[in-house]
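Explain my protein.
***
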Amino acid sequence: MQLIYVLKWCNVAGFCVENLSAISCHINLKREDPLMKQPVSTVQENWQRLEEALGYSFQERALLAEAMTHRSYANEFHAENLPDNERLEFLGDAVLDLIVSQHLMATLPDAPEGELTRIRAEVVSLPSLSRLAISLDVGSGLLLGKGEKSSGGGSKPSLLADALEALFGAIFTDGGFDAAKSAIMPLFVPLLQQASINDGQDFKSRLQELLQRTRRELPVYELIETTGPDHERVYRIDVLIDGRTYGSGQGRTKKSAEQDAAQATLILLEKDS
């Protein structure tokens, strides 16, 4: 019996060897197992770069490892009861909402509740989170199961968005509210500023008005793909104008995917004008 995987995970997470006494389950894995081929040093380098990008260094590195562990990876070693990142994602979602809401209350003292809600929904949406995660290269640090990895899980918007929220939850747990705020605000202030100067209309309405002004056909929103389990659906929708595909959007609801697709289309049309 060997502790190859446990030792590897504990090493990555920053555990001391003495902590292995708390782990009761042993696994018998060979070193040539395909899942074990990614060197620990590579994973650590990716996580270190991620810490630098976030401007935060974890005191309890096990939290960083948990935030980067997708359930597909934990499930492949279910006997070890490894935690995946879903609980931290749940916490990070709430932390992000609170920090963004606090910022909006302070910077837009005269804005009505509906406007604050619109702005917050725009910047904490799945498309926004996944784009931020891509800019931080979160995907290269994700621990994925063999099947998820082979299907391109490291570039899936929903997985990236979830991992980013898990990171926020991990930072909050490790360093508290101020640490989480310091990591989150530099990422979201530009998005909040842009959203706050919008005219208050949704992207679908703005796109429709633009097309009406230019005497073009109204957009058609076409559902292209639905992925994920029932409780975590992700919809991909394309915008068609005059029979031509323009923007593509994704979201956890069809409405949010349509809004994202409309926003992408507006950006393309503005570039063409």
About this structure: Confidence is low (pLDDT under 50) at residues 1-9, 11-37. Residues 4-89+126-196 form a domain with the Ribonuclease iii, N-terminal Endonuclease Domain; Chain A fold (CATH 1.10.1520.10).
